[in-house]
Specification:
With 158 residues, the protein is an alpha/beta fold. The chain has 5 helices and 5 strands, in the order H-H-E-E-E-E-E-H-H-H. It has helices at 21-34, 43-56, 112-126, 129-137, 141-152, and strands at 60-62, 65-66, 69-71, 79-89, 99-107. Strands 1, 2, 3, 4 and 5 form a 5-stranded mixed beta sheet that branches. The longest helix is centred in the last third of the chain and has 15 residues, at 112-126. The chain is globular and about 35 Å long. A hairpin with a 2-residue loop joins strand 1 and strand 2.
């Protein structure tokens, strides 16, 4: 699996405005809506589903990274986005640190394997310090698009 398989490039946000966990979830879900990845009448249901998933355990995995995700019957295919916060956000991360890099996934409930493969791909790339450093430094949507393409082409160490 590659980022190109699920990241909606028009949904990428280079500087998230939110200041808390729910705000991040709402802003990223809105970016998926704006990019046509989800339906407007499903926005609130998807936000609530992601928040319910967070209540099971934070998706703030440490090292300044969070991967909020959920399965929702309203989506027909796996969709995702990326957001960056230059100031960092308290996301109840496992290491207690602020989060700067966010990847969000929403997938159909009947495709759990696809959901897991996407999560695996994201976490594999996020283990690469060079990838994370470049992502944090990205200032434009185009920078992030190029970085994701390079990751898909195995230009990083993992």
């Amino acid at each position: 699996m590659k980022f190109a398989d699920f990241i909606l490039l028009d949904a990428i946000r280079t500087e998230i405005q939110a200041v808390d966990k729910e705000g991040v979830i709402r802003e990223m879900t809105q970016s998926l809506l704006d990019a046509g990845g989800i339906k407007s009448d499903e926005y609130e249901g998807i936000v609530k589903a992601v928040i319910r998933r967070e209540e099971l355990g934070s998706t703030g995995i440490g090292y300044g990274i969070a991967v909020p995700h959920t399965k929702h019957p309203s989506v027909e295919r796996l969709v995702g986005t990326v957001a960056i916060s230059s100031h960092g956000i308290d996301f109840d991360s496992l290491d207690g640190e602020k989060v700067y890099l966010f990847f969000m996934l929403v997938s159909p409930p009947d495709r759990p394997g696809e959901h897991l493969r996407a999560l695996e791909h994201i976490t594999r790339q996020l283990r690469d310090e060079t990838f994370c450093r470049f992502l944090k430094q990205s200032k434009t949507q185009e920078d992030i698009k190029q970085l994701l393409e390079e990751a898909d082409d195995n230009m990083f160490g993992k």
